[in-house]
DNA sequence: GCCGATTCTCTACGGCTGTAGTGGATCGAA
DNA sequence: TTCGATCCACTACAGCCGTAGAGAATCGGC
């Protein structure tokens, strides 16, 4: 009942502040994100951001909360459509194809959002208040990965899901903020890479109990 | 001849400033790295950092240069000892073992340094001056990875080397700054994961030319 | 022992930062 | 319509920031 009533036509100020904070984080980094800069960039009256987010950590929380919503919105269609987990025990290619789409788009259209996310991840390293919010944000995505590798027949879905996500994160970081920024991998390369990773995970223990060398 | 002569006993001020800047980057983030903070944290007379690094970007360059030296020092023993590339065409386990050691140590003892590196990578996103220096820093490491997978028999060493490094980076980021910070993977898990990735890479194209589905 | 050049210390300055408080505008209930 | 409460715009303030320059200290050649 404290913040329940708002006129529905006005795009909630906190959303605007959150979006602008994310934009500043991307364009100017953590040093460029200030209360006054948000006011200016968002075209808000001076002091507005300082009112809605009284302290700096509150401002970071607004940005992180907004980013959580944005990221959830990205995966919502795929998750809601029941596409994952694909549930076909051997469909490595299908999973690789879908994951490659996500990663490839994250590198290109989603580049800015990823930079903001990295910035907040680093900040969460030093601010316990942000840690919980950050960790909670990607939990649905990570659980989907675990469910997916489990459906593929992984004998260790927890570890395999975690490493699958880590592979994707590493490719994204390299392409967005790392040395690979100038030559981001093609969607096809990513797809092949994920397929190789999955094949290695499933082939070693699931399909072949132990014999390490191929049969010929 | 401009900066050639220095009394050899004094630990070069720039090294001390660089080390301290890295420490501040880890402990307080980009907003905590300031000329005055370095002076104070390093016990230098007020204004020293501002003299050695006249501008802010100069200070970041000092930190990045120092980090490049530190990281080179870590891999120097292994590289100098001729351990890599191991050069045995099928020695997946050996390579996985060595890489797992590097990653596992980076997560634990090297955690702080990695945080500083991420911080600078993000900054390089916005500062072209830092970009070249950052990209050049890890080039030896990445080339070693390419040489290694080539020695293992990879038909696409460039792509495979890149993705191997990306996998490692992803695992490290997750364990250091991501949601996996509370439960970092064990060295054994990392070793297994790398072995799976390499098996998938080499098995799919090298050992079997084309037939995509298993033969049964 | 002297002196010019280099190396360093210290201080100044305009500008930006986080945060809090004050007073006016707006809204819903009576 | 009146009035209390909420929402918001604006201002104040103490402190820290990057950067530049003036002068002291130190060093090496003579």
UniProtKB/TrEMBL annotation, chains A, B:
Instruction: Tell me which InterPro entries the record gives.
Output: Homeodomain-like_sf, TetR_C_31
Domain Tetracyclin repressor-like C-terminal group, by residue range, is 91-199
Pfam families cross-referenced by the UniProt entry: TetR_C_31 (PF17940)
Name of the molecule in the record: Tetracyclin repressor-like C-terminal group 31 domain-containing protein
Q: What is the lineage of its organism?
A: Bacteria, Bacillati, Actinomycetota, Actinomycetes, Kitasatosporales
């Amino acid at each position: 009942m404290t913040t329940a009533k708002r006129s529905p036509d006005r795009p909630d100020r906190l959303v605007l502040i959150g979006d602008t904070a994310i934009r500043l984080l991307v364009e100017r980094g953590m040093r460029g994100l200030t209360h006054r800069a948000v006011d200016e960039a968002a075209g808000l009256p001076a002091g507005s951001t300082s009112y809605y987010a009284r302290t700096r950590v509150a401002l970071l929380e607004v940005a992180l909360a907004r980013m959580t919503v944005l990221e959830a919105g990205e995966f919502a269609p795929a998750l809601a459509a029941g596409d994952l987990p694909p549930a076909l025990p051997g469909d490595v290619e299908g999973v690789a194809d879908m994951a490659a789409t996500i990663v490839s788009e994250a590198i290109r259209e989603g580049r800015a959002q990823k930079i903001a996310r990295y910035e907040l991840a680093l900040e969460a390293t030093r601010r316990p208040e942000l840690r919980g919010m950050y960790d909670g944000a990607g939990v649905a995505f990570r659980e989907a990965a675990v469910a997916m590798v489990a459906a593929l027949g992984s004998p260790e879905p927890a570890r395999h899901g975690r490493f699958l996500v880590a592979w994707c994160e590493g490719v994204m970081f390299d392409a967005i903020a790392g040395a690979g920024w100038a030559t981001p991998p093609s969607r096809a390369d990513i797809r092949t890479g994920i397929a190789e990773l999955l094949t290695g995970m499933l082939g070693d223990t699931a399909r072949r109990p132990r014999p390490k060398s191929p049969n010929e």
